Amino acid sequence: LDSQYGTYVWPCAVVLAQYIWAHRRSLPGKRVLEVGAGVSLPGVVAAKCGADVVLSDGEELPRCLQSCRRSCRANRLPHIPVLGLTWGRVSPELLALPPVDIILGSDVFFDPKDFEDILTTVYFLLEKNPCAQFWTTYQVRSADWSIEALLCKWKLRSILVPLHSFGADQEHLASSSLPGRHTIEMMIISLAQSDGT
């Protein structure tokens, strides 16, 4: 596979797009940021459902940023801003982001070395937007890879969303020509409440 993962539609993106579609009536007017957007399927679906979307991927990944722009043009959404944001780095672009209601991330928990940087960025965004949520799908690649300790460290809580609750438990939905097993999970991450929950 190409080292720039964001040039593929991964099964997680399809599952997250299904969740967005299932909640489409709540999206008009919502401010949405997709992180690690790559091909941008979830962000494009959110925009088509009436959300005000910003797409982002690593500033050091120009092909991924081009892929975001290409997806926008192909879907007649040329007005969607595409930003270079690197996980774990507080940049002028991150500081200048407008308020968000929903952060999207499909398969961003791909490489364990990035997990803390991702959650650092998510925590920063949630602190700036305390009512926001991070909707994320991930592929179970190893029983040894977990973000639970990092969620505790960053005082974040997560709710597992069963795939059957939004019609994403069908085998064909996350099928892929890419190699490997594709067991997908979805969770919603938010700030832990001040009462310790």
Automatic annotation (TrEMBL):
Coiled-coil region list: none
One record GO biological process: methylation
The entry's keywords: Methyltransferase, S-adenosyl-L-methionine, Transferase
Keyword S-adenosyl-L-methionine: yes
Gene Ontology MF terms: methyltransferase activity
GO cellular component labels: cytoplasm; nucleus
Keyword set includes Methyltransferase: yes
InterPro entries (UniProt xref): Methyltransf_16, SAM-dependent_MTases_sf
Family (UniProt): Belongs to the methyltransferase superfamily. METTL23 family.
Protein name: MET23 protein
